[in-house]
Amino acid sequence: MSEARYSGDRIFVHALTAQCIIGFLEWERRVKQTVVVDLELAADCRRTAQTDAVSDTLDYRKVVKRVLGFIEASEFHLIETLAERLARVVLDEFGIDWVRISLSKPGAFRRAREVGVTVERSRS
Hints:
Radius of gyration: 16 Å
CATH class: Alpha Beta
Helix content: 25-40%
């Protein structure tokens, strides 16, 4: 990430929920399950803060709609694969330099609240 382009600012969306086919067990291939996504997106907020104009910021409403659409249409065996593919979609389609995605399946194990993965990816 170029220092001139990226100030270290991040836009985040926490606890976004979606339904999809995820898992490798036979029953998991038949029933949509809930996944929870946390997104952190590189965004230089300096200009936006000066202008207070929505046109100067990342349209995270569009990002969220795309993320939900991608997840809900997906059918992967592993949450690692879903997280990796989702990161690539966000980076490629929104021109973001860096993304962190945490993706989890609530209730995947009886004695755990959730199980998940976090990936960080950049355009380089």
